[in-house]
Amino acid sequence: MALAFIADLSPSASILLIVCLLAVCLFEAINGFHDTANAVATVIYTHSLKPMVAVVWSGLWNFLGVMLGGIAVAMSVIKLIPLNDLLLQSLGENIALVMAILVSSILWNLGTWYLGIPCSSSHTLIGALLGAGFGFWLVHSGTGVNWGKATDIGISLLVSPFFGFSLAILLMYILRSSIKNKKIFKEPTDKNVPPLWIRGILITTCTLVSFFHGSNDGQKGVGLLMVVLIAFMPLNFALNHQLPISELKNSLQEVSGTLRKSASGEFSAQAVAHADYAQQLSLQIDSVDMKDKMQVFALRSNIQKFAKILESDLKLTVFPETSWHQMKGEVKTIKSYYEFAPTWVILLISICLGIGTMIGWKRIVVTIGEKIGKTHLSYAQGASAEICAAATIGVSTAFGLPVSTTHVLSSGIAGTMVASGGIKNLQKKTISNIALAWLLTLPVTFVLAFGMFYLFRLFF
Fold first, then answer.
1. Per-domain boundaries in the chain
2. Over 70: is that where the pLDDT of 416 sits?
């Protein structure tokens, strides 16, 4: 664990590291208040499961989602900030950046949760990362915020709620025309348990949303925790020391050999040049002192650039398809040396997400069940919204894009209400509050984190 490396830090830095780790845990627990509560809203509101059973069940599947969902979304989060520039700065500058991100994210998430507004933890974290990263860039120049990655994430956050809304309307129309048993379209009655087949549908959809929420939103916490660890202990977490360095050397040599074999035609010289560079990198490894900060950072930067070239450029222009497939596994190995998260990090985030769900679910459940539409949530509406949310989140995770479970599910609920009674069936006040939070979260957290970075620089 990270605590094993605290001996390398000063007493004050060690205390700040522990504070930041606890702050990440708090952020992820608040994420559970907001987002995971959406997953259990339908089964609790429809009396399909008792509240504590539902949140424990959801917590288990969130845990599995984080553990099995990979780290593509976590790496997308990390790539938003100028990480390589961060590695070269003093500990005080890194602490200021991390604290700005954490404090602004927690303040906004807590405030919206207290008001019962389903606000997006994804928007919150991304706005804070961009704001603090932009402030960091203004002070230190360098590469700055990764606006290309920010644009990709922004598009996914913008499109996903509209996709969920439209898909939910379509699914409700399909259900109405194909299901003859109309019990599924009724509202839950006081404490009465729905028929077994309806309970089965709702529990299944709750399970799917919980799993995919863990695989997407849980990874954001993983990415945030990795930013903290790299900021405080860059030498320990700049490269994946759990893997033998000899494997990296072997992969570079294999890539070099494949490049030479595939070199032909107009791109022959380019392929040979990259083969030479791969060979140079493999030889560089032998001379790197893993206790020398600058040498480790230089190696990380070089293999990162090389892997990016292979993935984005060469596979489209230089290699025959067979050669690219031969190198694909080796490129994946190379990337695993700088794109990684220790198992204990994933486990810690999973636990915090589950605990948050068990503490703060009630406020959001009431909003989802009663305040989006003028009629209370029916069985079919809950199931349709969760099917759409699970599908949207699952696809986004596969592409490594973070999305907002809150806004995807809330828009799905709104879509089912429109399908059942038209646009007039929506409660304008609740929809306005959700839309306002959706519009304000990114700019507010951006400005908040930007200002806090400069504030914390005065102290650290």
1. 8-237+343-457, 245-335
2. yes
